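Entry 14. Two folds queued back to back today. First construct below, sequence then C-alpha cells.
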Amino acid sequence: MATFKTCDGMKRRDFIRVGALGVGGLSLANYLQMTDAGEVKQPRAKAGIFINLPGGPSHMDTFDLKPDAPKEYRGTFNPIQTNASGVEFCEHLPKLAQCADKFAILRGVTHTLGAHALGSEYVNTGSRPLPALEYPGYGSVFTKEHQGPADLPPFVTVGNTSRQKPGFLGVKYAALATGATPRAGQPFGVRGVSLGNGLTVGEIEKRQSLLGDLDKTFAGVEKNNQLLDGLDRFSQQAYSIITSKRARAAFDVSKESPDFAKPFGEDAFGMSCLLATRLVEAGVGFVSLSLGGWDTHQDNFTRLKERNLPPLDTGLSALLTGLEQKGLLDTTSVFVTGEFGRTPKINTRSAEGGRDHYPRCMFMLMAGGGVRGGQVIGKSDDKATLPAATGYSPDDAAATFYHSLGIDHTKEYHSKTGRPITIVRNGQVIKELFS
C-alpha cells in the first residue's frame, strides 16, 4: 500500500518491523517476547479491525452531505439513498450504500486538534495527547487484554501506514507488521512468518534443535535477566508459528476462493481488507490497516471521485459483506476513522477548490461487536460546521469500541513508575449504537 505524505510532512510508517529468521532463529521470537498477552476475558466481540483514513476525509463529501446548503458549502456530489431507511450517502459510495444495514455512522463527532500528528494520535488511542505520555493504540490494549492462539500473532498491521503504537505499554504489545500489502492471486509472504529464500520446515526444525542445545549450554547465564528468563518460551512460540500451516495459510490470500475474493477488487486497500478477513477467520485477534491520501486542500472533488472513494467503497463494503458471509461480523468489531473532517466551506486555492483541516465536525463508522447497523447516530448542523446538539468525542468512540471488544475503558494500567493511567481518560460508551 502506498505511503502518503500529508501537508505537514508527516509520513505514516510501521512502528515495528519483524525480520526473517536469522541463523539463531530469534527475530520472530523477540517479537513474541514483546507481545505476551494479559488476562483472558470473554469479550462481546472476539476480534477487532481498525481502519485508519490518514489525511482526514471530508465528512460533507462522504457520509454527511448537505444538499440544501449554499453552493460554497455543499460541493458537487449528490446524495443517494442507501438500503437503510432514510439514510443517504455520497453518490460515489454505491457499494457501501447497498450494505448500509451492516454498519452505523456517527455524525457530529468533534474535537479541537487540527494538526495531522495530534489528531491522528487522538483517534488512534481515544485519549487526547499529552506531552509527557504516549497512550497505547487499540490493538496494543486488545493484545494485553486477550490471549490468542500460540501459533498466530495476536496483532497484525497491514502495509506501511499504521498509527497503532504500543505507547506506555511498551514494545512487547506492538504489532507484527507485514511491511507490504498482498497482490491479487499471489501468495503473500510476510517476513518472519513465511518460509522464504529456500527455507524448509525441516531446516527450521534443525535450527530449533540447535537452539535447544545452546539453551542447555548457557543455562544459568544472567538468569536474573527478565528478558532472558522468558526467551526460551517465546522461541518455542516462534517455532510454533513458523511451522504452523494455519499461520502461513492465514496470510496467503491466494488460497481464498475466487468468488469470495472478487468483490474486494485488486487494489492495495481491497487486498488488505481481504487479508484482514482471512486473519480474523484464522484466529488473529486484532488487525489494523489504512487507506491514505485524504488531505485534499486542492482539487478535492476530482481526487475523491477518482482516487479515494472508489477503493474505500469497494474494499470496505467487501470487508463487511465478507465478514458476514463467513459468520464473523457479529463477533468482529470494526472501527473506521480519519483524524478529522474537512472545512465545510470550500476554499479557492485551486480551480475546483479544496477543503482544509476541520476537527470540529467529522464522521466515524462502526460495525459488528453488537453494533446495530443501518442507523445514523448524532447529527451535524445545516452546514456541517458543528454538531447540531451535543456532539461525540473521539474519547466516546474509543470507549464504545472497547466496550464492543469486551474491554472496560475505565480500567487502570500502571506506568513503569507506578503511575495509574486509565485506558481512555475521558469518554462514555455511546449506548444508542447497541440499541
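Second construct, same run, same settings:
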Amino acid sequence: MVRPVEPPAPMTSPLARVLAFYLPQFHPTPENDLWWGKGFTEWTNVAKAKPLYPGHVQPRLPADLGFYDLRVPEVRERQAELARAAGVESFCYWHYWFGDGRRILERPFEEVVASGQPDFPFCLAWANQTWTGIWHGAAGRTLIEQTYPGAADREAHFNWARRAFEDPRYSRVDGKPIFVVFSPSHMPSTAEFVDHWRELAHKAGYPGMYFVGVSDAYDQNTERYRLPMLDPFDAVTILGPQDYIATHGAREKWGLKRRLRERNLGRFNRLRPKTWAYPTRIDFAEVVDHAFEDMPDGDRFLPAVLSGWDNTPRSSQRGVVYENSTPELFERYMEKAVARLAGHPKEQRIVFLKAWNEWAEGNIVEPDAIHGHGFLDAIRKAVLPGAATAAAEAARSETGPHG
C-alpha cells in the first residue's frame, strides 16, 4: 500500500534549508547501452546486488516509487511531493558538462525546466569528473574525459545554465543562484572559473552567484576546508563517505575489531582469495558520533549528511559499507547538522543531503522496502519540528487514547 503524502503544517518555518543531491541517471541512454549493455541503468546494479557477508543488507529495493524511469513526469511529480512533505527545500541536480558542450544524463533536468513541472525548487551541481570504469573494477578505462577548453567553453556553459538560473524555481542565496562544484581540485584554476562566471552573471543582471565548492582533499593531515583552491568559493562543504573515512575512519582503519570484520590482513591482503575478501565495514553510529569533527565554525562552512552508504552494488568487495544505518541515527545526524547552522544568516543555513536517490551507493531517502518513509520522517523531525509534532498529535487523535 502506498502511503499518502501529507504536507507539513503551513505555518512551520524550517530550521535549515535542505538541498538534496539528485541523480538524473534512471533512464536508458545510448552511452550506457554501449558501455554496460542495452537498457542499463542504476537499477541494473541495485537489483542484482547480493549480500557479501553474514548480516549484509542487500539488495536494497525501492518501495512506493518502484523501479522508476525519470522520463516519466508523474515520477518526478511524486518525488517532489515526498520531498516537500519531508522538509526538503530543493533538488540539487547533478549536472554533467565535459567541455565543448558535451553532456550526458541531461534529459530529466531539461524536461523539468522546459515543462515548468514539478513546481518544486532546484539548483545545479557540476559533477566535473572524468568518467571511468572504476565502478566495475576497470579504473583505467576512460569513458568520458572531463576537459576545460578555456574561456569560450566557460561562457557557453554559463549561457546553457542561464535558462535554469532565471527560472523562478531556482534556489538562491540573497538572490544569487546557487551553483555547486563537485571537484575543485580537478580544475585548472578555480579563481579563473569563478571570476569569469561572476562577470557573466553581472552582465546578465544577477546580483551575483553563490558558489559552493566541495572539498575533495582526503588527506587527514590537511585543513580540508581551507585549501587555497577553495578560496574563490562563497561556501565549502565535504561529502560523505569521505568526510568520515579521511578523519576518524583513517585513524581507526587498523583497529583489530575493524580488521577482523573486514578480513583485513594488511600487506598480506594480496594473498587472500578474492572470494574471502570483505568490503570496508564501518558502523554508521561511529559516523554520526564523529560527524563534522574537523569542520570549522563560520558562515562559509556548510554541513553535508547522508542516510547511509553501501556502494557494493557497483563495486562488490572493493566497496564501503556503513552498517546499521537507521532513521533514528540519521535523525541525530541531521540534528547535528542543523545545530551547526544556528549562527548562520537565515539564507545560508544550508544542509546538503547526499543524496535523494543514489540507490547504487546506498545513500537514499526515498521510500525503501526496509525502512519505508523512515528517512523522510527523520528529515521532517529535524528541520520541521512543529510539523512533526502536529502530525504525531493528529495521529494520536485519530487512534484514540488506547492507540
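Quick look at the second one. Residues 398-403 have pLDDT under 50 and may be disordered. The first helix runs from residue 30 to 36.
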